[in-house]
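REQUEST ID: PR-0412
SUBMITTED BY: lab tech R.K.
PRIORITY: routine
TASK: structure prediction, single protein chain
INPUT:
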Amino acid sequence: MKNIISKITFALLIGGITASCSKFEELNTSPTAANENQVKPEYFLNNAIIGAQQDPHIAERVYVYYWKTAARHHYFNYLNMGVDDDTFNGDYWRYISEWLNNANAAIEIAEKQAANGTAAAHNENVKQVARIWRAYLMSELSDNFGPAPIESFKGTNPTFNTVQEVYNYLFDELKDATSKIDVSVANGDIKSYDAAYGFNWENWIRFANSMRMRFAMRLSEVDAAKAKSEFEAAVATNKFIETKEQNFGVQEKDGWDPLSGVMSRSWNTQILSATLNNIFIGLGGIKTADQFTNQGIIEKIKPEDDFGTRYLSNFSVKSNDPSQGYYLDGMPNKMDPRAYKAFFVPGNKTDGEYWPAASTQEASIKVSDTRTDILDTKYTWNAFTGGTWGGLASNLVFRGQNGRLPGMINKFRTSTQKRLFFASWESHFLMAEAALRGWSTPMSDKAAYEKGIEQNFEYWGVSSHLAAYKASTNYNRVGTSVSYDHVTEPPASHTVKFIDAYTGAPGTAQIPYPSNTIYKNGTVKNDKLTKIITQKYIATFPYMALEAWSDHRRLGLPFFENPAVEQPIQTMLQLNSSNYTKNQVNFFPQRLRYPSSFRSADQTNYDKAVTQLGGEDQIFTPLWWAKKN
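STATUS: complete
OUTPUT:
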Protein backbone atom coordinates (compact mmCIF):
# COMPACT_ATOMS: atom_id res chain seq x y z
CA MET A 1 0.00 0.00 0.00
CA LYS A 2 2.78 2.36 0.91
CA ASN A 3 4.47 1.81 -2.44
CA ILE A 4 1.24 2.40 -4.33
CA ILE A 5 0.56 5.75 -2.77
CA SER A 6 4.15 6.94 -2.88
CA LYS A 7 4.02 6.82 -6.68
CA ILE A 8 1.10 9.20 -6.86
CA THR A 9 2.93 12.47 -7.28
CA PHE A 10 0.11 14.89 -7.84
CA ALA A 11 2.23 17.90 -6.97
CA LEU A 12 -0.34 20.65 -7.23
CA LEU A 13 0.41 21.36 -3.64
CA ILE A 14 2.95 19.56 -1.52
CA GLY A 15 0.86 20.10 1.59
CA GLY A 16 -2.16 18.66 -0.21
CA ILE A 17 -0.31 15.49 -1.04
CA THR A 18 1.03 15.14 2.46
CA ALA A 19 -2.45 15.49 3.93
CA SER A 20 -3.81 12.87 1.54
CA CYS A 21 -1.01 10.39 2.07
CA SER A 22 -1.14 10.69 5.83
CA LYS A 23 -4.72 9.44 5.75
CA PHE A 24 -3.81 6.56 3.45
CA GLU A 25 -0.84 5.65 5.64
CA GLU A 26 -3.20 5.23 8.58
CA LEU A 27 -4.26 1.99 6.96
CA ASN A 28 -0.81 0.63 7.79
CA THR A 29 -0.73 1.57 11.48
CA SER A 30 -2.58 -1.59 12.46
CA PRO A 31 -1.06 -5.07 12.16
CA THR A 32 -4.37 -6.16 10.63
CA ALA A 33 -4.45 -3.38 7.99
CA ALA A 34 -5.04 -4.37 4.38
CA ASN A 35 -2.18 -5.05 1.99
CA GLU A 36 -2.06 -3.78 -1.57
CA ASN A 37 -3.87 -6.82 -2.93
CA GLN A 38 -6.73 -6.45 -0.46
CA VAL A 39 -7.31 -2.73 -0.89
CA LYS A 40 -10.19 -2.08 -3.27
CA PRO A 41 -10.11 0.68 -5.92
CA GLU A 42 -13.80 1.37 -5.31
CA TYR A 43 -12.96 2.54 -1.76
CA PHE A 44 -10.75 5.30 -3.08
CA LEU A 45 -13.16 6.20 -5.88
CA ASN A 46 -16.02 6.60 -3.44
CA ASN A 47 -13.86 8.82 -1.24
CA ALA A 48 -13.16 10.99 -4.29
CA ILE A 49 -16.88 11.26 -5.12
CA ILE A 50 -18.00 11.95 -1.55
CA GLY A 51 -15.15 14.38 -0.95
CA ALA A 52 -16.10 16.49 -3.97
CA GLN A 53 -19.59 16.86 -2.54
CA GLN A 54 -17.74 19.24 -0.15
CA ASP A 55 -17.80 19.28 3.63
CA PRO A 56 -19.12 22.42 5.39
CA HIS A 57 -15.66 23.96 5.73
CA ILE A 58 -14.82 24.03 2.04
CA ALA A 59 -18.42 24.30 0.83
CA GLU A 60 -18.93 27.60 2.61
CA ARG A 61 -15.71 29.00 1.18
CA VAL A 62 -15.98 27.73 -2.37
CA TYR A 63 -19.62 26.92 -3.04
CA VAL A 64 -21.28 29.76 -1.12
CA TYR A 65 -18.71 32.56 -1.06
CA TYR A 66 -17.28 31.92 -4.52
CA TRP A 67 -19.49 29.98 -6.92
CA LYS A 68 -22.93 31.12 -5.78
CA THR A 69 -21.73 34.69 -5.53
CA ALA A 70 -20.08 34.70 -8.96
CA ALA A 71 -23.20 33.07 -10.42
CA ARG A 72 -25.47 35.65 -8.71
CA HIS A 73 -27.48 32.86 -7.14
CA HIS A 74 -27.76 34.98 -4.01
CA TYR A 75 -27.06 38.46 -2.68
CA PHE A 76 -23.57 38.55 -1.24
CA ASN A 77 -20.56 40.84 -1.59
CA TYR A 78 -17.38 38.87 -2.15
CA LEU A 79 -16.06 37.44 -5.41
CA ASN A 80 -18.52 39.64 -7.32
CA MET A 81 -16.46 42.62 -6.12
CA GLY A 82 -13.08 41.07 -6.87
CA VAL A 83 -12.58 39.92 -3.27
CA ASP A 84 -11.10 36.53 -2.48
CA ASP A 85 -9.12 34.97 0.35
CA ASP A 86 -5.80 33.24 -0.16
CA THR A 87 -6.60 30.87 2.72
CA PHE A 88 -9.84 29.84 1.00
CA ASN A 89 -8.01 29.32 -2.28
CA GLY A 90 -5.35 27.28 -0.54
CA ASP A 91 -7.95 25.15 1.22
CA TYR A 92 -9.75 24.41 -2.05
CA TRP A 93 -6.43 23.64 -3.78
CA ARG A 94 -5.58 21.19 -1.01
CA TYR A 95 -9.02 19.58 -0.99
CA ILE A 96 -9.28 19.06 -4.74
CA SER A 97 -5.73 17.69 -4.73
CA GLU A 98 -6.90 15.08 -2.25
CA TRP A 99 -9.98 14.22 -4.31
CA LEU A 100 -7.80 13.78 -7.38
CA ASN A 101 -5.34 11.75 -5.34
CA ASN A 102 -8.16 9.40 -4.38
CA ALA A 103 -9.30 9.03 -8.00
CA ASN A 104 -5.71 8.46 -9.09
CA ALA A 105 -5.23 5.85 -6.34
CA ALA A 106 -8.32 3.97 -7.55
CA ILE A 107 -6.88 3.81 -11.06
CA GLU A 108 -3.42 2.76 -9.98
CA ILE A 109 -4.65 0.09 -7.56
CA ALA A 110 -6.95 -1.30 -10.27
CA GLU A 111 -4.01 -1.48 -12.68
CA LYS A 112 -1.77 -3.22 -10.14
CA GLN A 113 -4.38 -5.78 -9.25
CA ALA A 114 -5.06 -6.49 -12.92
CA ALA A 115 -1.34 -7.01 -13.46
CA ASN A 116 -0.82 -9.36 -10.50
CA GLY A 117 -3.98 -11.39 -11.02
CA THR A 118 -5.85 -10.32 -7.88
CA ALA A 119 -8.45 -8.15 -9.60
CA ALA A 120 -12.17 -8.73 -9.13
CA ALA A 121 -14.45 -9.09 -12.15
CA HIS A 122 -15.60 -5.49 -11.83
CA ASN A 123 -12.05 -4.12 -11.49
CA GLU A 124 -11.69 -2.84 -15.06
CA ASN A 125 -15.04 -1.06 -14.99
CA VAL A 126 -14.21 0.62 -11.68
CA LYS A 127 -10.96 1.84 -13.20
CA GLN A 128 -12.80 3.42 -16.14
CA VAL A 129 -15.35 5.02 -13.83
CA ALA A 130 -12.46 6.48 -11.82
CA ARG A 131 -11.05 7.94 -15.03
CA ILE A 132 -14.42 9.54 -15.78
CA TRP A 133 -14.61 11.02 -12.29
CA ARG A 134 -11.02 12.21 -12.48
CA ALA A 135 -11.90 14.02 -15.71
CA TYR A 136 -14.74 15.83 -13.95
CA LEU A 137 -12.44 16.84 -11.09
CA MET A 138 -9.80 18.06 -13.53
CA SER A 139 -12.42 20.22 -15.25
CA GLU A 140 -13.48 21.68 -11.91
CA LEU A 141 -9.87 22.50 -11.08
CA SER A 142 -9.20 24.13 -14.44
CA ASP A 143 -12.51 26.01 -14.61
CA ASN A 144 -11.67 27.63 -11.29
CA PHE A 145 -7.94 28.37 -11.61
CA GLY A 146 -6.96 27.87 -15.26
CA PRO A 147 -3.84 25.97 -16.40
CA ALA A 148 -3.35 22.69 -14.55
CA PRO A 149 -1.21 19.53 -14.82
CA ILE A 150 -2.67 16.58 -16.75
CA GLU A 151 0.25 14.17 -16.31
CA SER A 152 0.28 14.44 -12.55
CA PHE A 153 -0.89 10.89 -11.91
CA LYS A 154 1.83 9.02 -13.82
CA GLY A 155 4.54 9.00 -11.20
CA THR A 156 6.60 11.90 -12.48
CA ASN A 157 6.93 15.48 -11.35
CA PRO A 158 4.05 17.15 -13.18
CA THR A 159 4.32 20.13 -15.47
CA PHE A 160 1.43 22.50 -16.04
CA ASN A 161 -0.67 22.48 -19.20
CA THR A 162 -2.72 25.16 -20.89
CA VAL A 163 -6.48 25.17 -20.46
CA GLN A 164 -6.80 24.12 -24.09
CA GLU A 165 -4.54 21.12 -23.47
CA VAL A 166 -6.54 20.23 -20.37
CA TYR A 167 -9.76 20.19 -22.38
CA ASN A 168 -8.26 18.11 -25.17
CA TYR A 169 -7.14 15.63 -22.54
CA LEU A 170 -10.62 15.52 -21.00
CA PHE A 171 -12.21 14.65 -24.33
CA ASP A 172 -9.73 11.85 -24.95
CA GLU A 173 -10.10 10.43 -21.43
CA LEU A 174 -13.88 10.38 -21.50
CA LYS A 175 -14.07 8.80 -24.95
CA ASP A 176 -11.54 6.11 -24.12
CA ALA A 177 -12.91 5.33 -20.66
CA THR A 178 -16.50 4.84 -21.85
CA SER A 179 -15.35 2.59 -24.70
CA LYS A 180 -13.81 0.20 -22.17
CA ILE A 181 -16.76 -0.23 -19.80
CA ASP A 182 -18.46 -3.62 -20.03
CA VAL A 183 -22.07 -3.04 -18.97
CA SER A 184 -22.70 -6.78 -18.55
CA VAL A 185 -20.41 -6.96 -15.50
CA ALA A 186 -22.26 -7.57 -12.22
CA ASN A 187 -22.14 -4.79 -9.64
CA GLY A 188 -24.20 -6.24 -6.82
CA ASP A 189 -21.49 -6.52 -4.19
CA ILE A 190 -20.02 -3.03 -4.69
CA LYS A 191 -23.09 -0.80 -5.12
CA SER A 192 -22.63 0.79 -1.72
CA TYR A 193 -19.18 2.06 -2.73
CA ASP A 194 -20.51 4.51 -5.31
CA ALA A 195 -22.41 7.39 -3.70
CA ALA A 196 -23.60 8.69 -7.06
CA TYR A 197 -24.78 5.77 -9.18
CA GLY A 198 -24.23 2.58 -7.21
CA PHE A 199 -22.01 1.47 -10.10
CA ASN A 200 -24.78 1.50 -12.64
CA TRP A 201 -22.40 1.27 -15.60
CA GLU A 202 -24.91 2.65 -18.12
CA ASN A 203 -25.44 5.76 -16.04
CA TRP A 204 -21.70 6.35 -15.76
CA ILE A 205 -21.45 6.18 -19.54
CA ARG A 206 -24.30 8.68 -19.78
CA PHE A 207 -22.60 10.99 -17.30
CA ALA A 208 -19.36 10.84 -19.28
CA ASN A 209 -21.08 11.70 -22.55
CA SER A 210 -23.04 14.49 -20.92
CA MET A 211 -19.77 15.90 -19.61
CA ARG A 212 -18.37 15.69 -23.15
CA MET A 213 -21.35 17.76 -24.30
CA ARG A 214 -20.75 20.31 -21.53
CA PHE A 215 -17.03 20.54 -22.23
CA ALA A 216 -17.59 20.83 -25.98
CA MET A 217 -19.97 23.74 -25.51
CA ARG A 218 -17.40 25.40 -23.29
CA LEU A 219 -15.21 25.71 -26.41
CA SER A 220 -17.95 27.20 -28.59
CA GLU A 221 -16.54 30.73 -28.69
CA VAL A 222 -12.84 29.88 -29.07
CA ASP A 223 -12.71 26.70 -31.19
CA ALA A 224 -16.06 26.24 -32.90
CA ALA A 225 -14.87 23.39 -35.12
CA LYS A 226 -13.55 21.34 -32.20
CA ALA A 227 -16.64 22.16 -30.15
CA LYS A 228 -18.95 21.00 -32.94
CA SER A 229 -17.01 17.80 -33.59
CA GLU A 230 -16.81 16.78 -29.95
CA PHE A 231 -20.43 17.65 -29.21
CA GLU A 232 -21.79 15.79 -32.18
CA ALA A 233 -19.72 12.70 -31.35
CA ALA A 234 -20.97 12.70 -27.76
CA VAL A 235 -24.63 13.21 -28.56
CA ALA A 236 -24.52 10.65 -31.37
CA THR A 237 -23.94 7.91 -28.80
CA ASN A 238 -27.56 8.39 -27.68
CA LYS A 239 -26.24 7.66 -24.20
CA PHE A 240 -26.36 10.89 -22.25
CA ILE A 241 -28.40 12.02 -19.23
CA GLU A 242 -31.97 12.31 -20.49
CA THR A 243 -34.22 11.64 -17.50
CA LYS A 244 -34.28 12.45 -13.79
CA GLU A 245 -33.45 8.85 -12.97
CA GLN A 246 -30.10 9.32 -14.72
CA ASN A 247 -29.15 12.57 -12.97
CA PHE A 248 -25.75 12.60 -11.31
CA GLY A 249 -26.30 13.50 -7.67
CA VAL A 250 -24.98 12.69 -4.21
CA GLN A 251 -27.39 12.37 -1.30
CA GLU A 252 -26.72 14.86 1.49
CA LYS A 253 -27.00 13.99 5.15
CA ASP A 254 -26.91 16.04 8.31
CA GLY A 255 -23.63 16.43 10.17
CA TRP A 256 -20.16 17.81 9.62
CA ASP A 257 -18.57 15.65 6.96
CA PRO A 258 -18.31 15.61 3.16
CA LEU A 259 -21.95 14.53 2.81
CA SER A 260 -23.33 17.52 4.73
CA GLY A 261 -25.30 19.91 2.55
CA VAL A 262 -23.22 22.48 0.70
CA MET A 263 -25.62 25.26 1.75
CA SER A 264 -26.41 24.08 5.26
CA ARG A 265 -24.66 26.68 7.44
CA SER A 266 -27.35 28.64 9.24
CA TRP A 267 -25.47 31.94 9.25
CA ASN A 268 -25.39 32.11 5.45
CA THR A 269 -28.63 33.96 4.69
CA GLN A 270 -28.55 33.33 0.91
CA ILE A 271 -30.95 36.11 0.03
CA LEU A 272 -32.44 36.54 -3.44
CA SER A 273 -30.09 38.36 -5.81
CA ALA A 274 -31.08 41.31 -7.96
CA THR A 275 -29.97 39.26 -10.97
CA LEU A 276 -32.40 36.43 -10.32
CA ASN A 277 -35.14 38.83 -9.28
CA ASN A 278 -35.01 40.79 -12.54
CA ILE A 279 -35.05 37.53 -14.50
CA PHE A 280 -37.93 36.03 -12.50
CA ILE A 281 -40.35 38.96 -12.39
CA GLY A 282 -42.83 38.71 -15.26
CA LEU A 283 -41.06 35.83 -16.99
CA GLY A 284 -43.64 33.37 -18.30
CA GLY A 285 -46.61 35.59 -17.50
CA ILE A 286 -47.90 33.39 -14.67
CA LYS A 287 -49.92 35.44 -12.21
CA THR A 288 -48.87 35.43 -8.58
CA ALA A 289 -52.54 35.10 -7.68
CA ASP A 290 -52.58 31.72 -9.40
CA GLN A 291 -49.64 30.48 -7.34
CA PHE A 292 -50.92 31.08 -3.79
CA THR A 293 -53.98 30.30 -1.71
CA ASN A 294 -52.78 32.50 1.18
CA GLN A 295 -55.26 35.36 1.16
CA GLY A 296 -52.81 37.70 2.86
CA ILE A 297 -50.37 37.33 -0.02
CA ILE A 298 -53.07 37.63 -2.64
CA GLU A 299 -54.24 40.91 -1.12
CA LYS A 300 -50.69 42.31 -1.38
CA ILE A 301 -50.32 41.69 -5.13
CA LYS A 302 -49.56 44.89 -7.04
CA PRO A 303 -50.58 45.91 -10.56
CA GLU A 304 -48.04 44.82 -13.16
CA ASP A 305 -46.79 48.37 -13.79
CA ASP A 306 -46.52 49.27 -10.07
CA PHE A 307 -42.93 49.57 -8.81
CA GLY A 308 -43.98 50.58 -5.30
CA THR A 309 -42.27 53.39 -3.38
CA ARG A 310 -39.32 55.27 -4.82
CA TYR A 311 -36.40 56.03 -2.47
CA LEU A 312 -33.93 57.74 -4.77
CA SER A 313 -32.04 59.34 -1.89
CA ASN A 314 -31.81 56.18 0.20
CA PHE A 315 -31.19 53.39 -2.32
CA SER A 316 -28.18 53.28 -4.60
CA VAL A 317 -28.84 54.14 -8.23
CA LYS A 318 -25.24 53.76 -9.42
CA SER A 319 -25.75 50.45 -11.13
CA ASN A 320 -27.51 49.25 -14.25
CA ASP A 321 -30.05 47.29 -12.20
CA PRO A 322 -33.44 48.12 -13.78
CA SER A 323 -35.18 47.83 -10.40
CA GLN A 324 -32.87 50.11 -8.44
CA GLY A 325 -34.30 52.90 -6.33
CA TYR A 326 -37.63 51.22 -5.61
CA TYR A 327 -39.20 49.36 -2.70
CA LEU A 328 -42.08 47.08 -3.72
CA ASP A 329 -44.49 47.23 -0.81
CA GLY A 330 -46.28 44.09 -1.95
CA MET A 331 -45.96 41.20 -4.37
CA PRO A 332 -45.18 41.23 -8.09
CA ASN A 333 -48.16 40.70 -10.35
CA LYS A 334 -46.52 37.97 -12.45
CA MET A 335 -43.63 35.68 -11.64
CA ASP A 336 -41.75 32.68 -12.93
CA PRO A 337 -43.37 29.96 -10.79
CA ARG A 338 -40.00 28.51 -9.77
CA ALA A 339 -39.15 31.71 -7.90
CA TYR A 340 -41.72 31.09 -5.17
CA LYS A 341 -40.52 27.49 -4.83
CA ALA A 342 -36.85 28.43 -4.54
CA PHE A 343 -37.24 31.48 -2.28
CA PHE A 344 -39.63 32.09 0.59
CA VAL A 345 -41.88 35.15 0.77
CA PRO A 346 -40.93 37.20 3.86
CA GLY A 347 -43.32 36.43 6.69
CA ASN A 348 -45.09 33.56 4.91
CA LYS A 349 -44.55 31.26 7.86
CA THR A 350 -47.37 28.92 6.87
CA ASP A 351 -45.13 27.75 4.00
CA GLY A 352 -43.70 24.36 4.99
CA GLU A 353 -40.34 25.36 3.48
CA TYR A 354 -40.10 28.72 5.23
CA TRP A 355 -36.70 29.18 6.85
CA PRO A 356 -37.39 29.47 10.61
CA ALA A 357 -34.44 31.80 11.17
CA ALA A 358 -36.15 34.45 9.00
CA SER A 359 -38.19 35.59 11.96
CA THR A 360 -38.14 39.38 11.70
CA GLN A 361 -39.95 41.37 9.02
CA GLU A 362 -39.52 44.89 10.38
CA ALA A 363 -37.15 47.08 8.35
CA SER A 364 -36.18 50.72 8.73
CA ILE A 365 -35.04 53.47 6.41
CA LYS A 366 -33.64 56.66 7.90
CA VAL A 367 -34.92 59.34 5.55
CA SER A 368 -33.58 62.31 7.54
CA ASP A 369 -32.46 63.24 11.04
CA THR A 370 -36.09 63.67 12.00
CA ARG A 371 -37.73 60.86 10.04
CA THR A 372 -37.26 57.10 9.95
CA ASP A 373 -39.64 54.95 7.95
CA ILE A 374 -40.54 51.67 9.64
CA LEU A 375 -41.57 49.09 7.06
CA ASP A 376 -43.40 45.82 7.55
CA THR A 377 -41.87 43.63 4.86
CA LYS A 378 -44.29 40.76 5.41
CA TYR A 379 -45.60 39.61 2.03
CA THR A 380 -43.29 41.86 0.04
CA TRP A 381 -40.74 40.98 -2.62
CA ASN A 382 -37.52 42.94 -3.09
CA ALA A 383 -33.88 42.39 -4.02
CA PHE A 384 -30.95 44.78 -3.99
CA THR A 385 -27.68 45.09 -5.84
CA GLY A 386 -24.36 44.25 -4.30
CA GLY A 387 -21.43 46.62 -4.40
CA THR A 388 -20.73 49.71 -2.32
CA TRP A 389 -23.68 51.74 -1.10
CA GLY A 390 -21.50 54.10 0.92
CA GLY A 391 -23.30 56.14 3.53
CA LEU A 392 -26.66 54.99 2.21
CA ALA A 393 -26.11 51.56 3.74
CA SER A 394 -25.76 53.00 7.24
CA ASN A 395 -29.27 54.42 7.03
CA LEU A 396 -30.90 51.07 6.25
CA VAL A 397 -31.87 48.01 8.23
CA PHE A 398 -33.07 46.28 5.10
CA ARG A 399 -30.53 45.49 2.37
CA GLY A 400 -29.01 42.07 3.00
CA GLN A 401 -31.18 41.58 6.09
CA ASN A 402 -32.48 38.11 6.82
CA GLY A 403 -36.27 37.91 7.04
CA ARG A 404 -36.92 41.23 5.28
CA LEU A 405 -36.10 39.88 1.82
CA PRO A 406 -36.81 36.60 0.02
CA GLY A 407 -34.30 33.90 0.95
CA MET A 408 -33.51 30.38 -0.14
CA ILE A 409 -36.06 27.87 1.14
CA ASN A 410 -35.40 25.59 4.07
CA LYS A 411 -35.01 22.20 2.37
CA PHE A 412 -31.73 23.15 0.72
CA ARG A 413 -30.34 24.16 4.12
CA THR A 414 -31.12 20.93 5.98
CA SER A 415 -28.91 18.34 4.21
CA THR A 416 -31.89 16.33 2.95
CA GLN A 417 -31.54 16.74 -0.82
CA LYS A 418 -29.33 15.30 -3.50
CA ARG A 419 -26.60 17.67 -4.55
CA LEU A 420 -26.79 17.60 -8.35
CA PHE A 421 -23.65 17.73 -10.46
CA PHE A 422 -25.42 17.17 -13.78
CA ALA A 423 -29.16 17.02 -14.50
CA SER A 424 -31.18 15.99 -17.52
CA TRP A 425 -32.39 19.50 -18.27
CA GLU A 426 -28.81 20.63 -18.86
CA SER A 427 -28.47 18.00 -21.60
CA HIS A 428 -31.52 19.46 -23.30
CA PHE A 429 -30.43 23.07 -22.98
CA LEU A 430 -27.03 22.06 -24.39
CA MET A 431 -28.76 20.37 -27.31
CA ALA A 432 -30.92 23.44 -27.84
CA GLU A 433 -27.85 25.66 -28.07
CA ALA A 434 -26.07 23.14 -30.30
CA ALA A 435 -29.00 22.87 -32.68
CA LEU A 436 -29.29 26.67 -32.78
CA ARG A 437 -25.63 26.75 -33.83
CA GLY A 438 -26.40 24.33 -36.66
CA TRP A 439 -24.81 21.27 -35.08
CA SER A 440 -26.33 17.82 -35.53
CA THR A 441 -28.56 16.88 -32.57
CA PRO A 442 -31.38 14.36 -31.92
CA MET A 443 -33.89 17.17 -31.33
CA SER A 444 -34.62 20.59 -32.78
CA ASP A 445 -33.53 23.61 -30.79
CA LYS A 446 -37.11 24.47 -29.89
CA ALA A 447 -38.00 20.93 -28.84
CA ALA A 448 -34.86 20.61 -26.70
CA TYR A 449 -35.42 24.06 -25.16
CA GLU A 450 -38.98 23.22 -24.19
CA LYS A 451 -37.98 19.78 -22.90
CA GLY A 452 -35.39 21.38 -20.63
CA ILE A 453 -38.02 23.73 -19.21
CA GLU A 454 -40.46 20.86 -18.78
CA GLN A 455 -37.98 18.76 -16.81
CA ASN A 456 -36.95 21.63 -14.56
CA PHE A 457 -40.60 22.51 -13.93
CA GLU A 458 -41.12 18.91 -12.85
CA TYR A 459 -38.17 19.20 -10.44
CA TRP A 460 -39.76 22.23 -8.80
CA GLY A 461 -43.30 20.84 -8.83
CA VAL A 462 -44.83 23.56 -11.01
CA SER A 463 -45.78 21.55 -14.11
CA SER A 464 -49.39 22.78 -13.96
CA HIS A 465 -48.15 26.13 -15.30
CA LEU A 466 -46.00 24.67 -18.09
CA ALA A 467 -48.23 25.18 -21.14
CA ALA A 468 -49.03 28.81 -20.38
CA TYR A 469 -45.42 29.48 -19.46
CA LYS A 470 -43.96 28.13 -22.72
CA ALA A 471 -46.41 30.19 -24.76
CA SER A 472 -45.82 33.45 -22.91
CA THR A 473 -44.56 36.57 -24.67
CA ASN A 474 -44.42 38.54 -21.42
CA TYR A 475 -41.07 40.32 -20.92
CA ASN A 476 -39.21 40.14 -17.65
CA ARG A 477 -37.35 43.16 -16.31
CA VAL A 478 -34.34 42.54 -18.56
CA GLY A 479 -36.45 42.27 -21.72
CA THR A 480 -36.57 38.51 -22.29
CA SER A 481 -39.65 36.34 -22.84
CA VAL A 482 -40.18 32.57 -22.77
CA SER A 483 -41.90 31.68 -26.05
CA TYR A 484 -39.12 30.35 -28.26
CA ASP A 485 -40.63 31.76 -31.45
CA HIS A 486 -41.22 35.19 -29.91
CA VAL A 487 -38.02 37.03 -30.76
CA THR A 488 -39.47 40.53 -30.95
CA GLU A 489 -37.21 42.87 -29.03
CA PRO A 490 -38.76 44.84 -26.17
CA PRO A 491 -39.11 48.60 -26.49
CA ALA A 492 -36.32 50.76 -25.14
CA SER A 493 -38.24 51.32 -21.91
CA HIS A 494 -41.55 50.78 -20.18
CA THR A 495 -43.69 53.06 -18.03
CA VAL A 496 -44.13 52.32 -14.33
CA LYS A 497 -46.05 53.92 -11.50
CA PHE A 498 -44.68 54.73 -8.06
CA ILE A 499 -45.23 56.71 -4.90
CA ASP A 500 -42.51 59.19 -3.99
CA ALA A 501 -41.19 58.26 -0.54
CA TYR A 502 -40.47 61.86 0.41
CA THR A 503 -43.59 63.67 -0.76
CA GLY A 504 -46.17 60.88 -0.93
CA ALA A 505 -47.06 62.03 -4.43
CA PRO A 506 -47.82 59.47 -7.14
CA GLY A 507 -45.68 59.56 -10.25
CA THR A 508 -44.59 57.71 -13.35
CA ALA A 509 -41.15 56.88 -14.71
CA GLN A 510 -39.62 55.35 -17.81
CA ILE A 511 -37.60 52.28 -16.87
CA PRO A 512 -35.16 51.23 -19.60
CA TYR A 513 -34.54 47.59 -20.31
CA PRO A 514 -30.86 47.21 -19.46
CA SER A 515 -28.27 47.03 -22.21
CA ASN A 516 -26.07 43.94 -21.88
CA THR A 517 -23.09 45.43 -23.70
CA ILE A 518 -20.96 42.27 -23.47
CA TYR A 519 -23.49 40.36 -25.59
CA LYS A 520 -23.89 41.66 -29.13
CA ASN A 521 -23.03 45.16 -27.95
CA GLY A 522 -26.22 45.35 -25.94
CA THR A 523 -28.48 45.43 -28.99
CA VAL A 524 -30.19 42.10 -28.30
CA LYS A 525 -32.24 41.03 -25.30
CA ASN A 526 -34.71 38.46 -26.62
CA ASP A 527 -33.01 36.29 -29.22
CA LYS A 528 -33.09 32.51 -29.03
CA LEU A 529 -29.66 32.09 -27.44
CA THR A 530 -30.60 34.52 -24.67
CA LYS A 531 -33.76 32.51 -24.04
CA ILE A 532 -31.86 29.21 -23.89
CA ILE A 533 -29.22 30.51 -21.50
CA THR A 534 -31.81 32.31 -19.37
CA GLN A 535 -33.70 29.07 -18.86
CA LYS A 536 -30.51 27.12 -18.32
CA TYR A 537 -29.40 29.70 -15.77
CA ILE A 538 -32.62 29.44 -13.78
CA ALA A 539 -32.31 25.66 -13.88
CA THR A 540 -28.79 25.75 -12.41
CA PHE A 541 -30.24 26.96 -9.11
CA PRO A 542 -29.27 25.93 -6.53
CA TYR A 543 -26.77 23.12 -7.14
CA MET A 544 -24.97 23.99 -10.37
CA ALA A 545 -23.70 27.46 -9.59
CA LEU A 546 -20.28 26.70 -11.11
CA GLU A 547 -21.90 25.95 -14.46
CA ALA A 548 -23.96 29.15 -14.30
CA TRP A 549 -20.77 31.12 -13.67
CA SER A 550 -19.05 29.34 -16.55
CA ASP A 551 -21.85 30.18 -18.98
CA HIS A 552 -21.68 33.84 -18.04
CA ARG A 553 -17.92 33.84 -18.51
CA ARG A 554 -18.35 32.13 -21.88
CA LEU A 555 -21.18 34.21 -23.31
CA GLY A 556 -21.97 37.15 -21.04
CA LEU A 557 -25.46 35.67 -20.60
CA PRO A 558 -27.83 36.11 -18.93
CA PHE A 559 -27.71 39.78 -17.97
CA PHE A 560 -25.87 40.45 -14.70
CA GLU A 561 -26.21 43.95 -13.29
CA ASN A 562 -23.03 45.71 -12.20
CA PRO A 563 -22.26 46.11 -8.51
CA ALA A 564 -23.26 49.54 -7.23
CA VAL A 565 -20.49 52.13 -7.01
CA GLU A 566 -21.66 54.80 -4.59
CA GLN A 567 -18.03 54.62 -3.49
CA PRO A 568 -15.10 53.20 -5.48
CA ILE A 569 -14.66 49.44 -5.11
CA GLN A 570 -10.99 49.21 -4.28
CA THR A 571 -10.73 45.65 -5.58
CA MET A 572 -12.24 46.52 -8.97
CA LEU A 573 -11.45 50.10 -9.82
CA GLN A 574 -12.17 49.41 -13.49
CA LEU A 575 -15.85 49.89 -12.58
CA ASN A 576 -16.59 53.47 -11.57
CA SER A 577 -19.17 56.23 -11.51
CA SER A 578 -18.56 57.06 -15.18
CA ASN A 579 -19.14 53.62 -16.73
CA TYR A 580 -21.52 51.69 -14.47
CA THR A 581 -24.37 51.83 -17.02
CA LYS A 582 -22.44 49.49 -19.34
CA ASN A 583 -21.18 45.95 -18.90
CA GLN A 584 -17.57 44.92 -19.40
CA VAL A 585 -16.01 41.48 -19.07
CA ASN A 586 -13.69 42.77 -16.37
CA PHE A 587 -16.63 43.88 -14.23
CA PHE A 588 -17.25 40.21 -13.45
CA PRO A 589 -14.94 37.64 -11.78
CA GLN A 590 -13.29 35.24 -14.19
CA ARG A 591 -11.33 32.80 -12.01
CA LEU A 592 -9.70 32.12 -8.65
CA ARG A 593 -6.11 33.12 -8.03
CA TYR A 594 -3.58 30.38 -7.43
CA PRO A 595 -2.90 30.09 -3.69
CA SER A 596 0.36 31.43 -2.32
CA SER A 597 1.10 27.93 -1.01
CA PHE A 598 1.46 26.71 -4.60
CA ARG A 599 3.76 29.58 -5.48
CA SER A 600 5.88 28.94 -2.41
CA ALA A 601 6.09 25.20 -3.04
CA ASP A 602 6.82 25.32 -6.77
CA GLN A 603 7.81 28.70 -8.18
CA THR A 604 8.79 27.17 -11.55
CA ASN A 605 5.41 25.62 -12.21
CA TYR A 606 3.64 28.67 -10.81
CA ASP A 607 5.48 30.89 -13.29
CA LYS A 608 4.65 28.53 -16.12
CA ALA A 609 0.97 28.40 -15.15
CA VAL A 610 0.69 32.18 -15.09
CA THR A 611 2.42 32.42 -18.49
CA GLN A 612 -0.07 29.90 -19.89
CA LEU A 613 -2.91 31.86 -18.35
CA GLY A 614 -2.09 34.71 -20.71
CA GLY A 615 -2.48 37.42 -18.11
CA GLU A 616 -1.83 38.27 -14.50
CA ASP A 617 -2.74 35.86 -11.74
CA GLN A 618 -5.79 37.95 -10.91
CA ILE A 619 -9.53 37.40 -10.50
CA PHE A 620 -10.43 39.35 -13.64
CA THR A 621 -8.10 37.51 -16.06
CA PRO A 622 -10.34 35.47 -18.42
CA LEU A 623 -9.68 31.79 -19.04
CA TRP A 624 -8.90 30.53 -22.53
CA TRP A 625 -12.49 29.59 -23.36
CA ALA A 626 -14.10 32.73 -21.88
CA LYS A 627 -15.03 36.07 -23.45
CA LYS A 628 -12.17 38.55 -23.51
CA ASN A 629 -14.08 41.77 -24.15
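NOTES: The CA atoms of residues 187 and 200 lie 7 Å apart.
REVIEWED BY: pending
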